[in-house]
Design a protein that fits this description.
The complex is a heterodimer of chains A (about 120) and B (about 230).
Chain A (H helix, E strand, L loop, with lengths): L1 H40 L8 H16 L5 H20 L2 H21 L4 H4 L1
Chain B lengths: L2 H24 L9 H19 L5 H24 L1 H8 L3 E5 L2 E2 L1 H6 L4 H10 L8 E6 L5 E5 L22 E5 L2 E2 L1 H6 L4 H10 L7 E6 L5 E5 L5
Antiparallel strand pairs in B: 1-2, 1-3, 3-4, 5-6, 5-7, 7-8
Helix pairs in contact in B: 1-2, 1-3, 2-3, 3-4
The chains are: A mainly alpha (about 120), B alpha+beta (about 230).
Chain lengths: ~120, ~230
């Protein structure tokens, strides 16, 4: 009976951790996609510092995301966000769009990893 | 010290704690003789625990969730196996009689892929050097050999001699390196006052004793501490 209780506690812990992870990754990915699309659609059209805002947004999120996501991917998004800030300041649309697309690609990959499919399972 | 090194140290401590908890949750048998399912889980846990330690870019949580899932599966499997004999045979296999009525079952040996050398070696490890002495031998699911010697070759027991010697029970460690083990005293139905009486008779104090064992009849063995130089 004691072992079954231990198994129950473990199951609850695993479920809580997994649910938290899925929720955290999905909500962050949605927010990232929204912000990146805004950056792409309004690039250089107003005086807003959207890339810079995104950079700070990611700096806030990276700590918690590191609990569930490979740190290389988190660092890569951070590097691309910094590249977007430089491109926005230099009004270099090629670099800005390139970095934005790469971030979208990574984030979609993270979201896909959280979904059950043959691709992610096998 | 670099951040990466600190990360590895913290992760190693975390993994050590969680793997120790996991092995404890799986039960005592895990440490000694293992069933096939337990062996699989132990191998997998050691592999999974190593990943976040070697690659600091991997989140620890993934390893922890995987380890706990394995522990969960092992606990569930052991509960199911305990309740269902057929599943027990599927998961753990069954004991195989290698020697029956003093005769080696060569077909059984071929089935479990045990050579004569393996058999003789396992028997020697049990202190049996003559195949002729054995009435039956079973290869257990954990790979160990259980042997029953022929009656005429078995050691004599007090019962066979018509004797009934006093049984003081298992001697337990009551003092270890100068420290009194209260749990052992409780098991023996004694307390510290009873122990102090025994020690007074022997003119000893707990601090002078390296090891003291005691059984329910009050028989004790005392090994004194060596003086530190």
């Amino acid at each position: 009976m004691k072992r079954l209780i231990a198994a129950g506690v473990i199951l609850v812990l695993v479920l809580i951790t997994s649910t938290l992870g899925i929720f955290m990754i999905n909500s962050t990915a949605i927010e990232v996609e929204k912000r990146i699309k805004q950056i792409q659609s309004t690039a250089f059209s107003d005086s807003g510092k959207r890339a810079e805002n995104f950079f700070y947004f990611w700096e806030q999120k990276r700590e918690l995301m590191a609990v569930f996501v490979n740190h290389n991917e988190i660092d890569e998004i951070g590097r691309l966000a910094a590249k977007m800030v430089s491109a926005e300041r230099a009004k270099n649309s090629t670099d800005l769009f390139e970095a934005a697309n790469e971030i979208l690609f990574i984030v979609r990959g993270l979201k896909e990893d959280e979904q059950f499919s043959l691709y992610t399972l096998l | 010290m670099g951040d990466k090194m600190l990360k590895v140290i913290v992760r190693t401590v975390l993994m050590y704690i969680f793997v120790t908890i996991s092995v404890r949750l799986m039960g005592k048998r895990q440490i000694g003789d293992m069933q096939p399912t337990e062996l699989v889980v132990t191998l997998l846990i050691s592999e999974i625990a190593a990943i976040p330690l070697q690659d600091v870019s991997q989140p620890v949580s993934i390893g922890l969730v995987a380890i706990f899932m394995l522990v969960l599966l092992e606990i569930l499997a052991s509960v199911i196996i305990m309740k269902n004999l057929r599943l027990r045979r599927i998961f753990s296999g069954k004991s195989v009689a290698i020697i029956k009525n003093g005769v080696i079952d060569q077909k059984a040996m071929r089935n479990v892929r045990i050579t004569v050398f393996d058999l003789v070696e396992m028997l020697r490890m049990q202190g049996i050097f003559e195949l002729d002495d054995i009435e039956s031998a079973f290869l257990e699911v954990n790979g160990s050999l259980s042997v029953r010697q022929k009656t005429e070759k078995s050691p004599l027991t007090p019962k066979q001699l018509g004797l009934s010697p006093a049984d003081g029970g298992v001697p337990l460690t009551v003092i270890s390196d100068g420290t009194i083990v209260d749990a052992s005293l409780e098991y023996l139905g004694m307390n510290r006052d009873d122990l102090n009486l025994i020690l007074k008779e022997k003119q000893k104090s707990p601090k002078e004793i390296f090891l003291m064992t005691l059984n329910k009849s009050g028989e004790s063995v005392i090994i004194d501490k060596e003086s530190e130089k």
